[in-house]
User: Fold these one by one.
Assistant:
Number 1:
Amino acid sequence: MSDGAISQDEIDALLSGVDMGGLGSAGFPPSKSNEKQLNTAPLAEFSSEAASVLADSLTTMTGTTFTVGAPVVEQVNRDQLLRKIPEMIVGVTADFSEGLSGDHLFLLAPEFAQKLAGLINKEDSPELDDMALSVISEIVSQHSGSEITKLSQTGKFPGLNSNPAEAVHVPKAMVRYPSNTFILISYPVTTDGGVFTFWEAIAKDAASLIIGALGGSDDLDIGGGLSAAEMQQMTGMAGGMGLKQGMNGMGMQGMGAMNGMGMQGMGNMQGAMNGMGMQNMGMQGMNGMGMQGMSGGMMGMNVPNVQALQYPNLQQGISSMEQGNIGLIMDVYMEMTVELGRTKKQIKEILGMGEGTIIELDKLAGEPVDILVNHKPIAKGEVVVIDENFGVRVTEILSPIERVSDLR
């Protein structure tokens, strides 16, 4: 009997927003998506060429042979991607910034990221610290740069560029994924007997423009609507009351009699029908009515207008959930440092330092000092003395653009 405690697997599932049974809410399977499906064939060909470049790049940077198999290109949503990736993930954002706009995200399992960082830094079991994450960012920059070069050759995206790659090692629920559905490219990577996956996610709007630039069709197939087979199946529903089957055998002779019936005869028909038992009104008696004779009568029938169901945009709800997850880490400690200044010295100068050596920094007297959180600059301030202790008074908060540029 359960003691009411929640397991670690259930906690992880709640944090990631994925139902434990892999189903939608209330235990029902997710409904058929109404998102328009992109023609991914041009992207599949494009990513196959990128896979070869990725293998060469990894081999060159690590000194170890890497092979990248045929990538899988599919259109997915956030929940579908969350089911594919591990609970902890290394996410690298390299969003398109010029010539093309949209989210551009790369994902690696922590084991894969450690493998790459260890080979490049010549370490056996490296931690995923800032140094290791900067290595992963450089790998993604190389891959993204090769893609941008290839796309620029199409002439469709003048000045195409992307933001500097920024890697983080966080729970998968905290990664910023593209909204709604998006294109996911999965590269199978093999080295030293190990098999890993290198995921690349591209926002749907950006992917659509890329497909067009690669010569793909702009036509989109609408998902979620009724197919021709489904429409035909609906015509045979409602038990034995199918119109098509029930009116198979009414010949033109019977319809001719009706054509010669005037308004006066309609009164006699009403009397005859009043005396007709319900047994003779069964749909079985309509088996003699042919579809050919129904061509004139169908003009008066109300044909239902079948349209694809439009689902509301649920992106706002996802954002709210992600915002709520941030509250779970509000009490986590982070290292804050104040940097007085920096300089570069040759090794022989550093070895020649001794007591009394004066080191000249790149800061002028009275110039604000840099305030960093986990070695990332976020603000500027001035040094103050509080009860014989040094402190810093914040004078400026860096803008998001300045913070991104300093991460490179």
Number 2:
Amino acid sequence: MSAPRVGVIGGGQLARMMQPAAINLGIELRVLSATATDSAAQVIPDTIIGSHHDWDAIEAFAQGCDVVTFDHEHVPTEFLEKLIAQGIAVRPGPHALQYAQDKISMREALTQAGIPCPQWKVISKESDLVEFGDTVGWPFVIKTARGGYDGKGVWVVDDLAEAKTVVAEIQAADIRVLAEQLVPFVRELAAQVARSPQGQCVAYPIVQSTQTNGICHEVISPCPDLSDERATQAQEIALRIAAELDVTGMLAVELFDTGSEILVNELAMRPHNSGHWSMDGAITSQFENHLRAVLDWPLGSPAATSPVTVMVNLLGKDLDDLHSAFRHVMARDPGIKVHLYGKAVKPGRKIGHVNVSGENRDDLTARAWHAADYLTGVIDE
């Protein structure tokens, strides 16, 4: 049997981190990358240079692929429909991916399915803002329906004047506007599941996610001090969403824990930052299970291999020579696992992450943060 070829649209770090899993499984990866220097293009020999907005590039890239999947959700769904019409498998399909692309469509679908969400409203005119503010109170959150990620396209508005300014800016770009309740959450959680076309599903442990300026910075698996009942509830929410929306591959569900209820914040239909801990802390990483799922192979166990795994993202700062810090980090803590993405260092940019696994959560957290801070130049001892 010839090795299957999986085409990944997008050349970022998520596609890059699929490559080790693909090698181990004997899978050939092909990536459609914007440039030859993107993260995945540096390590995947079968790289096609082109834009995900260019139909001709996507069509040429997809020829010879057994299945096409994604590093991001931004491919126009009409292009994916055309690939399917040519007999090329696309997973997740455009019928599911639309809900990760458009936050209004996502809120409509989840609300109709009875999935718990923050209060929300589509904003088209000033009176909508007034009505929503009267309903949920000020401040509240305004989001672009499309295009936002890592804190971009999200504003917390304190009053009507500020809200009108933000809405005018969004509408000038011909993008729909979503208003959401500012949820008084205790912490943020993430639930990840993998689902195959046959409907097999596996659920990873629920993790706690901490953000810095809207960017995921720390993940602790499993979530500290979360009861089995609430962890099961969060997993069931993710499994229901995967089934309701017919997701194939990895699904990440970002959640607000208010202390009394769990609400869905965002969806991602691909490997996700909240699952990077699984590369060193789970029997089957999210990247391997994503490949298994889109190929409709039996899924691997998502169970943890250690009582606790802590992941800390490396966010770019002033230090751009990360390798100069390796000797200290490796010598000080041989248990630290460092993953770099081959990206140019820019302030606030995700350029890698570190994982550490063991038993004592406080000790692991301190070790992970020391390594991350040393690698990015926050500390020098």
Number 3:
Amino acid sequence: MLAFLLIVGLSFYVMASSISGMVGDSLFEQRIRTDRSSLESLATRASPLLAQSDVQALRSQLLTAGGELGGRILLLDQNGKVQLDSYGEMQGMRLQYPEIANILVRGQSVDYGVHELDSGTKLDTSHLLFTRRTSASWVGYCTAGVVYASDIIGVLLLVSPVQEIMQNLYQLQDQLILIFVVVAGAALLAAWVFSSIITRPIAGLNRGIQHMSKGDFSSRVKVRGAGEMKQLARAFNSMSEKLETLDQSRNQFVSNASHELKTPLATMKIMIESLIYQPDMDKNLRTEFMTDINNEIDRLSAIVSDLLTLVQMDSQNVKLTRENLSIAQLIKENAHRLQPIADQKGQTIQLSLADPCDMYADKSKLNQVIYNLMENAVKYTQNGGQIKVGLQRQGRDARFTVTDNGPGIPKENLPHIFDRFYRVDKARSREKGGTGLGLSIVHQLVLLHGGAISVESEEGKGATFIVELPLHQG
């Protein structure tokens, strides 16, 4: 703000000095023209009288001209000494005004200047601003050379009051100062208003960033203004919202992971303590406990493996090792692997493969997608149920479906079915050895291949998982 005031002040000073100089020159121009003309005429008439040393005639001429011009007239010789004074006070005095020197030394015919009467200081109208001296008396000095036979034999000096002109210049100076104060005040007010308008969104954004740096991802800023500031505010809010969602997801993930890991560890601890403190435990019961501990270890291993897979996907370090493959062939292989389990439950797996759907993809990861969806269908479908697996080509996409006639998924659970550690029936899921991460991994793997996965279900009427993958021919 100080720099702004300095710039405004300097600009005003340059402008005001120029204006006051031009106005001062304009105000004096008419006076200078009149005084010079009259004094040159008087010098012409006085020239022969001075050459003849006719003092009486010269005195008469000076008195008459002084009365007509309203000022004091002095006649000086070639040395700058006053020979005659219309006021009769300065005879014999030597004057050293620059206007006199310009006639006698530099050979000018006429000259004019404004001086302070008491100090004799000459006024420069171009630097009038802020040099005001209200108590000073100002006079104009007009000089003209007295020429006889081509030689300057003397100088006429007309001393006339110019106080009225100076007062007009002082009034102009007052007006310029007033204008400066008004303009500076208006400029400051406008600068404050505009700076407030401009900096308010920035200040709000800065506060939001400070809150975010302290871990408060719920911070939002008001979308104000237009253009870049509005876009910046929207971008910040979008980023803040995503970070908040990510933070909540991370916290939920850590909480769920801790819970999932804690449960089998607690179970194993109870079983191991029972083995330790009951050394005479029945052999069959001991074997059952050891089997349960082994199962819990397998479950822990599965959870850790799934967690590592998700961490790799989140870090975007997963790379696809693509090769030519047939989705139909992968479905057949996985159906063969799951058939013994289905047979134990009296289930039937029905395949409807309308197209081989050859594509260029990561075989192991697509195999994981197909196996996980088919295994879930077998696992969660009641004894004697039916699992239908379909594959068909739709344009440039492969459509893979797994349908069962199991218990289905409640409508309120459908939006969360691919969330990590999400289970529709947590108790039954744990009994069946699920980690709650399988569908989340399937979702990520499908996305890695540029595909999409969805689920259609109605409680009590089974569920259908639909995977759509873009076909890339090898």
Number 4:
Amino acid sequence: MYSESFIPAVASLGSLAFVLGIIILFVSKKFFVAEDPTVSMINALLPGVNCGACGYPSCSQFAEELVRTRNPSMTCPVGGGELAEKLGTALGITMAEPKPVTCVVLCQGHNGNARESAEYVGIRDCWAAAQAFAGTKQCRFACTGLGSCIAFCDFNAMRIENGLVVIDKELCTGCGACVPACPYGVLTMQEKKTERYFIACSSHDRGAETRKACDAGCTACQKCVRECPEQAIVIDNFLASIIQEKCTSCGKCIEVCPTKVNCILLERDMETVKSKKVP
């Protein structure tokens, strides 16, 4: 048997819900703002992955801002030049074509090159390992190979091989979502070029310490700096880096690099080709 107070309570709650529904309906009608059909059209052209590479949290926000400002410099790295042309046609403006970029791994610390510091047993997450101790390898700047970055890639362009993250250049769209997901900073975005040389190392330790930790680590020996005719290589905090805008891909830096496994890599035609010292 229901108590005498049950029915009035239900009736009271039902009445309250009805009144609130009426209020919500009124407010939604009163403050309804019709969406610009142009925004919907532009949003439909965008990839819809909401990766943030354009500088906006979502594709819809990018579409709204583009329609509002008609700013031709706004670009979608994922869509590339083909999308830029479609957006320009839809808006009646000439859109800037984004420079194609790709993700590059600044580390060669796979299980054959890098020495382990300890066996890690725990959550398969780079950030968790970083909190527990410096990392899974003696080099505290090395890729841990636990793959936190993979969860942020919507294009299946990343995988772990032999304790090191590997980028599939054909699938990578250059969105950059993976870069902040790495606690060690071994991921970076670089412009796609027919040939690109880069220092595949992130270690800022002194040379002797780097050599103990990894066969492919940069020791900041300065030989590549002195050999480069374009002055495209600089040393900062015990680590060499190549200024891509100056590099002419002459390859002289690779010839003088003394590391056991050359820390300078060449990417050619979207395929990673290791230097002549690596079989």
